[in-house]
Amino acid sequence: MQRSIVINREFGSGGREIGRLICERTGLDLYDTRILQDAATRRGLPPDLLASFDERVVAGQFFDLSIIGGTDPETFSLPYRMYGAIADVIAEAAGTRPAVFIGRCADKILTEAKLPFRSVFIYSTDLAAKIARAVERDGVEPKDAEKYIAKMDRTRDRYQQFFTGTRFGDRREYDLCLNSGRLGYATCVDLIIAATQD
To answer: Where are the alpha helices (DSSP H) in the chain?
Structure first.
């Protein structure tokens, strides 16, 4: 395989699991939480601080810096420095060998680094499965799951808009858009691998 795969996904659509299955089939490395860990090590940042920067820190049009604490210029530059650390890890990994990246604007980062990739968006029309995933994975009460799913998708949209100026889920931004709720994970994996072969 000559190019990386970037998977953006709706919450509960199984995008991370699809990425893991692709890696099992192809031998590619998977970068998700690992991106944060590697970036923290590289920049000498506390891993727990970098983890707090994850997609959940975005609020509205700008970052909610109260999550990080402080109002000095050093604090306000922190999101950009942390994003820079993540970008370095993604570009270096993809420049070494193709890999699978989950979210975190990896498609923009690889475009700027002029590295080959396929960009995929995974969504699902199976609301019951998404709710079950929210309950199982994040411990959400079933009655609150739909609101939680919507909130997580809004957060991912804000994150993407903040750093790329593009809209989360806009089909024009991706090479491939797949409905995991109808196709199933295995078919999504087959289609993504087929679309990535050169």
So the answer is: 15-26, 33-43, 47-52, 73-96, 106-112, 127-138, 145-164, 180-183, 185-196
| 177 DSSP β-pair partners | 121
Cα–Cα distance for residue pair 120/196, rounded to 1 Å: 10
Q: Report d(CA 122, CA 119) in Å as an integer.
A: 10
Report whether 55 contacts 156 (CB < 8 A): yes
- Overall average pLDDT of the 104-130 stretch: 95
Amino acid at 168: F
What is the pTM for the complete model shown?
Answer: 0.86
- Cα–Cα distances in angstroms (integers) from residue 66 to residues 59, 119, 167, in the given order: 10, 33, 25
The predicted model gives 27-55 an average pLDDT of 74
pLDDT-derived band at 64, boundaries 50, 70, 90:
low
- CA pair distance 147, 143, nearest whole angstrom: 9
